[in-house]
Design brief:
It contains 5 helices and 7 strands. The protein is an alpha+beta fold.
């Protein structure tokens, strides 16, 4: 029980530091990987920024769709507690790729056999980075490694919406 209480408190402290102390970014780069916390920080949801306040992501019903930041962060039927969207950065500057954005945009309207563990938003996002949508990056930790390899993202900063 103590661990269940400790995690949300730690996430609240981290979120405060990210939002009030660390520098934010005014906007992601085209093709930036973005994410928000889900379920009090026990999981994450990821997608690709394609410009003009649009994000492409794999929804929980398996549809690849274009959404705005508010739609992206309001996951789980409004039960999501996230307050921030994080952006792939290097030395405080957003990093992305126009090729990544173009691939993500070309996938809008497609459908996948969504599975929380085996075919999820992180696998889709990693597929936009690598071109291989049948990759093994189905956990956020693996996606972060792919972000570093493919677009040089070494840190995450809050998007100042």
């Amino acid at each position: 029980m103590n661990g269940q209480i400790k995690r949300p408190v730690n996430n609240l402290v981290e979120s405060f530091i990210d939002n009030a102390v660390r520098d934010k970014v005014s906007a992601p780069a085209i093709g930036s990987v973005i994410y928000c916390d889900l379920a009090a920080g026990t999981a994450e949801h990821s997608g690709i920024y394609i410009g003009s306040n649009n994000i492409v992501h794999l929804s929980g019903d398996g549809i690849i769709e274009r959404v705005n930041p508010k739609q992206f962060i309001n996951r789980l039927g409004g039960w999501n507690t996230a307050i921030s969207i994080y952006v792939s950065c290097n030395a405080g500057t957003p990093v992305g790729s126009t090729n990544v954005a173009k691939l993500a945009e070309s996938m809008i309207g497609s459908q996948r056999s969504y599975n929380l563990i085996m075919d999820n938003c992180h696998q889709f996002t990693a597929g936009c980075l690598s071109g291989n949508f049948e990759n093994s990056c189905n956990f956020f930790t693996f996606l972060k490694d792919e972000v570093q390899i493919r677009i040089g993202g070494t840190e995450w900063r809050v998007w100042d919406l």
